[in-house]
Amino acid sequence: MNKSMLGKKMKAAILVEQKKPLVVTEVQLPEKLGYGQVLVKIYYTTICGSQLNEIDGVKGHDKFLPHLLGHEGGGVVEEIGPGVTTVKPGDHVVLHWRKGSGIHSATPKYKWDDKTVNAGWVTTFNEYAVVSENRVTAIPKDFDLRIAPLYGCAMPTAFGVIHNDAKMRTGDSIAIFGSGGVGVALCVMASLSGAYPIIAVDINDFKLRKAKEFGATHTFNSKKVDVKKKILELIPEGVDVGVDTTGIKEIRELVYELTNADGTTVLVGVPRKGENMCIDSFQLHFEKKITGSHGGDAQPNKDLPRLIRLQQSSRFDLKGMITHTYSLDKINEAIRMVRTGDAVKCLIKM
Ligand SMILES: [Zn+2]
Prior knowledge:
Number of strands: 18
Helix content: 10-25%
Shape: globular
Largest sheet: 7 strands, mixed
Structural class: alpha/beta
Oligomer: single chain
Number of helices: 8
Bound molecules: zinc ion
Strand content: 25-35%
Order of helices and strands: EEEHEEEEEEEHEHEHEHEHEEHEHE
Radius of gyration: 20 Å
């Protein structure tokens, strides 16, 4: 048996200062696990918009600096703390940011020389992580761990947006703005739900090709064509479901405008502080709806097993969603790659 990693040093990427590259360094794990905590060896993580927002300080001042980050990963349970019942050492798990089943534990504190490094209930940009029991869900051992990070955020969010937020019905039309991880996962889910047409909009042709590969029936580059005109040519009354994954003010407004009179606009992208949208709310007094999504209200303990079962039945293959792979040492390069827009999901291999 290998000895416990608790109290030992490991490599981690820390956010020390907003708007600066992450610092890849050695930090010391907590000495022991508290009630409801689980020690996980991280194998893979991906980067998503939330971490870019944290780095950029989109929500303003960050009182937790320096801190670990990352909220979607795949790993193996090493040890469990008191009270933990839903996973055991050796279990393969998805690490996710939404609460699943099990205990909601206290957050861990790591050491970086004499400094304390904060962490949330789940972090994944580190070789080992002490996480809250309710942020891990066991998955089959033959499930590809490289794909697991997609089930920590993009896939359950997309599932929840389609089924919980939009309450989509077979044959509904949908327009998805932004073809990043969540946008492409939305194409997969919309396609499985029998939506038509599935319109993907982005400013990057590479991402739009990915959206098409994963189920979009029509793609429009908003830098090259008048998207409003194109969508209304296809569906003159507007789409049944309009989804924004970008958080950009003008796009949120356009998505609402392009949603039909009894359709639903779902806002998934987090807006920048102070960038308030301006809409004609008149139709909201009738059948039209607009809602902000919180991870699609997905329930990882219930939703992940069903999605993984579906993937294992070969209804879809997510491998192509990972467009680049980096080591943890190169995480800042990966972040730069995500920012260029020429990537859907960048995988970090620990
Ligand atoms: Zn995410």
